[in-house]
Amino acid sequence: MKKWLKRLIFGGGILIVALAFLVLMVSLVVRQVAVRRAERDFPPPGRLVEIDGRLSHIDCSGSGSPTILLESGLDDRGSWSWAGIQDELSQISRVCAYDRAGMLWSEPRKGPRDAERIADELHAILAAASEAPPYVMVGHSLGGLLVLVYDERYPGEALGFVFVDAAHPEQERRFPGEVQELIANARPDPPWLFRILAPYRIFAGERPTPRTAYWWRSFPEGVLRESAAADASFEQAARTGSLGDRPLVVLTAGVTPTMPGVSDEGNAAMRRILLELKEELAGLSTNSDHRIVEGAGHYVHRDRPEAVVAAIWDVVRAVREAGPVRSGAAEDKR
User: Fold this and answer.
1) Is 165:141 a contact under the CB 8 Å cutoff?
2) What is the pLDDT of residues 281-330, one digit of tens each?
3) The CATH fold of domain 42-321
């Protein structure tokens, strides 16, 4: 090989390494700016409790029993997802929202982020915060699976349940074939890449919120790691059993989005299967009510918050009165 070509390759290699180093240094600076801005603009609204050397955030308010526990779905909203209804719920009973490891104000933890590990961590957080049972557990989306696994691992603590457009343990296996294929082919970028890129969101020019301010942590450390363990979480939830006669309300979104890349027949089949799955969730308890919330998408607590508050109040009342859950209540009738 000619000397000039060797020099060109060698020089090019040095340039690539130098540019990579520069990008890394800039990204570290941007990350520090994002961290400090988030801590300054959005301090934790609740308490930080220490579990095994890592801090976890839990935000509780109100008084009364049972305590309402809010479990968010697989997204980067964490406890902030419930901000629109938590104050109103605190007028009903004690209520707690928290952030799973790596979400918003909670520091990340080592190990897989499957449902059993999350349940054990929640149990430890509640103990550290002196938030004793009994509970009414509210789970949105993937949070429904987490609630089922928690109840299986810590029997007797939860006396009632509300599932907010919750996932079903067998849903991915029972979706239409083209939907399963779409899910199988969806592979997110690796967490390390988002650890580098996520802090740059501070330059997006959007209205800052806790969700956007802590995206540098929540997406790579929370969402992506929980997504990687989703199959295990579904399997763990599938091994759980009946809820007996404990009060349960299942809320189903009345507006089902059309999945891009899926045929009209596939989307129609998807809607039918989702409804069947929600009916099966309601069948987990002999004391349940299934409500389709018209005008609400997957985030029912955002689109129709009054429907979620009413459902939680109905379950709390059924627990207190040791009676049947109210059927088809459309609003809070305290």
Assistant:
1) yes
2) 999 999 999 999 999 999 999 999 999 999 999 999 999 999 999 987 44
3) Rossmann fold (3.40.50)
Report how far residue 140's alpha carbon sits from residue 267's, in angstroms, rounded to the nearest whole number. 22
Q: Indicate the DSSP class of residue 285.
A: B
Q: Please name the residues in contact with 281: beta carbons below 8 A apart, sequence gap of 6 or more.
A: 144, 163, 166, 168, 250, 290
200, 173 Cβ separation under 8 angstroms = no
CA distances, 58 to each of 52, 103, 104, 226, 241 (Å): 16, 11, 11, 19, 28
CA-based max dimension of the chain: 89
191/67 Cα distance (integer angstroms) = 35
The full set of domain ranges for the chain reads 42-321
Average pLDDT of the residues in 196-220 = 77
Percent pLDDT > 70 in the chain is 82
Q: What is the spatial distance between Cα 161 and Cα 183, in angstroms, rounded to a whole number?
A: 28
Q: Where do the H-state alpha helices sit in the chain?
A: 3-41, 83-89, 115-128, 142-153, 171-174, 177-185, 191-197, 210-213, 215-217, 224-228, 230-238, 264-282, 300-303, 305-321
Residue 247 in 3-state DSSP? coil
Amino acid 147 reads: V
- By DSSP bridging, strand 95-98 and strand 67-71 are parallel
CA distance 149 to 118: 9
- Alpha helix ranges (H) inside 243-304: 264-282, 300-303
Cα 146 from Cα 166, distance rounded (Å)? 10
Alpha carbons within 13 angstroms on the beta-carbon side of residue 48 total 11
User: Which tokens belong to 13?
Assistant: 């290699």
pLDDT tens for each residue of 107-132: 999 999 999 999 999 999 999 999 99
Tokens, residue 282: 């309601």
Question: Strands across the sheet with 135-140, in order?
Answer: 47-51, 54-61, 95-98, 67-71, 135-140, 158-164, 248-253, 288-293
Place of tokens 């299934």: 290
